[in-house]
Amino acid sequence: MAQLQQGEKEVQCEADKLFGVWAHIINPAQKMCAEKVQKSVLNEGEWDKVGALLIGNRVINNIGECPSIKSRMDDIDEKNKSETHSYHDGYVLESYYRTFIDASSFKK
Fold it and tell me: What residues does the Bet v I/Major latex protein domain cover (predicted)?
């Protein structure tokens, strides 16, 4: 079974803008990092609401494999600029993990 890693990534962008993209409207991510985010479609709910279900394709390795994955917005914390997605179905869960949760915090 694969082990998850925790880490930080520094990007040159305003924290408020990046949080807005990830927590409220994912479509700009396709333009910001087109080489990694191939498609994101709202399947259920509203973009910026807890419970929204997204279906998309993400490039996950250096050879360009682009599997589909479903993610659900589990939490949005406007005050602390953080959000949490849980992933359901798709290649990553079928091949590597039983559960997969992405908790992101956007700091200034």
Answer: 8-98
Yes or no: say if 47 and 20 are a contact pair by the CB < 8 Å rule. Answer: no
β-partners of residue 37 are 58
Which residue range(s) make up the domain with 39?
15-105
- Cα Rg, the chain, nearest whole Å: 14
Contacts 24+ apart (CB under 8 A), 42-45: 43/70, 45/73
Residue 85 and residue 72 in contact, taking contact as beta carbons nearer than 8 Å: yes
User: Domain total for the chain?
Assistant: 1
In this predicted model, what pLDDT tens digit does every residue of 19-75 receive, in sequence order? 877 777 666 666 666 666 777 778 899 878 899 988 877 666 655 666 777 888 999
